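Re: the multi-chain job from yesterday

Posting the exact lines I submitted so nobody has to dig through the queue logs.
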Amino acid sequence: MVQVDNLGRILEEHPFAEGLEPALKELMIGCAANERFEAGQFLFREGGDAKKFYLVRSGVVAVEVHAPGRQALTVETVDDGGVLGWSWLVAPHKWTFDARAQTLVRALSFDTTCLMRKMDSDPILGYQVLKRFVPVMAHRLHAARMQMFDLYGPGKKG
Amino acid sequence: MPDRQAVIDRKDLGALFTLLADEGYQTIGPKPYDGAIVYAPISSPEELPKGIGDEEEGGHYRLTQRGDAKLFGHTKPVQGLKAHLYPARQKLWSAEKAGHGFRVVKDAAPQPRYAFIGVRACELSAMLVQDRVFEGGPYVDKGYAERRKNCLIVLVTCDHAGNACFCASQGTGPDASEGYDLKLAEVVDGSRHVFVTEAGSDKGRAILSKLSKQDAADGDVKAAAANLEAAAKGQKRAMIAGVAELLAAKLESPHWEDVAKRCMSCGNCTMVCPTCFCSTMEDATDLSGLKAERTRKWDSCFSIDYSYIHGGPVRNTAGARYRQWMTHKLSHWVEQFGVSGCVGCGRCIIWCPVGIDITAEAKAILKGA
Amino acid sequence: MNVAMQQLADPMDIRPFRIEKIRKELADTFTMELVPEGGGSFAFKPGQFNMLYTFGAGEVPISISGDPADPSKLVHTIRRVGAITQAIGNLSEGMAVGVRGPFGTPWPVEEAFGSDLVILAGGLGLAPLRPAIYMALANRHRFGKVVLLYGSRSPAEILFPKELEKWRGRFDTKVRVTVDRAEPGWGGHVGVVTKLVTGAGFDPMHTVAFVCGPEIMMRYGIQALEQAGIDSSSIYVSMERNMKCGIGLCGHCQWGAPFVCKDGPVFRFDEVADAFKVREL
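And the result, structure tokens for all chains:
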């Protein structure tokens, strides 16, 4: 199928696919869709059902948190080559932040209901996908800790 | 050829003081003061600690009566000569407000000319160490360099070891082979009281040529040698070999925490150490706010402010501060200046209020390896 | 007085400079342009620092943030954090400060000719790196890629924003800026500075990196550079320690065996990597 071939090429270009066997890529492509978001559009909203994740091809996605009476705060941006969203892996599978396109964003999205089913029946695929998500989670945790520590203060002599 | 040895009789020693004074030197020597022996200005041998010895141990120091007439029968004064060569407070300059700015005024007073009498080998070694610090690098401390160049050193060899002494293991005593102008060995045998004397420099030879002296007798030279041997062999403490490499590898030894339980961070060890050179600046204005002054004063790595960068001190714990002192002295110093910063005088042991013994700590770190 | 004469003078003597211009950079940070009282110039290498004295209050080490190609003025960027920097901050144009320096080791800009250059800065750490950036851009043709990665706490705390924009506008230079947190309206990256290293597009085998910022930021920044494949012998850092003399005689800035003031502040990372690991050294 032409579409799958195209998606396959797109997946191929993303760092996520590095070292992934063709057969597994094939399985993933079966759950994938090519998406496009205009600047300002939300990819997902806090509290919504997390039934997707995104491989960002180009553009910048802001991960935001909002509170009444306060301006929304961007806690992280994800851009070219990045992976967005892992709430689908963790019960109760609800998004914990808002994700908003800061620029025009092109991304490959994955239907995680579809993918999870394949991962359950093919543990090798399951392992390979998780192996790529654990570093994403670890980096987020590390980054959150560093932000909590406030890297830049007290600052450099100057 | 070493200079032929001569002896100066005790009764002729006064002439040395007079001669040095005539040549414009301020004579500094050991003197009993307030229950201790200190280096102080003295003008004749009568002010030397005649018949006085000292007793030393970890956290312990007392003067004793020797029961003889020796003038240099003590081990070492409580403070080294750095107090003269690198005074504890040094005014660097003053400044006056002038228009929108200020004008700096430097004191042009000439540096003193000291003749140090009764310098021990460890003391001299400490001076040679400080020479490397203040004169050996790209930046020279001009005041120190001038005072040092001006000074004359009359070394007196030791006739016994103090309980805290460990110069033999550091190779810094009890004898000295260079760096002095005159070297005296005091020999008392019944009524005979002489100083076996040797010149170590042209300055020393010139002085010696003007003093009344006789050729040394065999017995004098033998007695002087025996005294030196006793001073070397009588040492109860020793620094372990290879301590520089050991400490460099033991920055994370749990033993530092053990020392921290005893160390009071008082900084006494750094104040009495004859090589410790750390200083800080003190800036102040007078009440009118029109005149300012900058003073350099001794500082200690045991003070919490010593390592302060904004945000807080780098070395918060007593263990880290003791580690800084000991590893600097015995290990990093070698990398910085090519020699150990410890001359084995043992003053840090004597003046530590809880008797922390740097030689014992080194052994403990070795054992914990 | 030229540099050669300066070295002959007593390094503890201060040289009076007049404050020509003061520019507010951030809420607590300002830049001063200084000229020597009675004329003359001030030559320095990027990464070096001066001891700045203000009447009666004392001295503080401050890195030079100006252009090494322009010795007619001396430029310092200063954050008001302690009594002395506060006192300097209270001075106005036309008043005087005392200067001793320049001291310390420089960023090895010339040694990096022929390689890609990555500059990784955090917070006020951009100030000591700015002279190296000026020099690198003035010699742009001698480098492969030039990449500037800069992290700050928030958009309002970005140092030298106009220059960052200007440098970003050059086609031959990649500038990536990230902040820890931002409100909408900020169009740039959000996240820790280490994240900028991935995808920065340098050739790790032929790259020299200069890193400056708070110590913890440098540690994590270096981790990211090493992960990207840059050898530790090609990474340089600028250290901060307490300094009272600037010439290795007061002892305060010791960091293991090195004196940060004269053996640093710029160190090749592989030579100090072990010291970074020891707490309270």
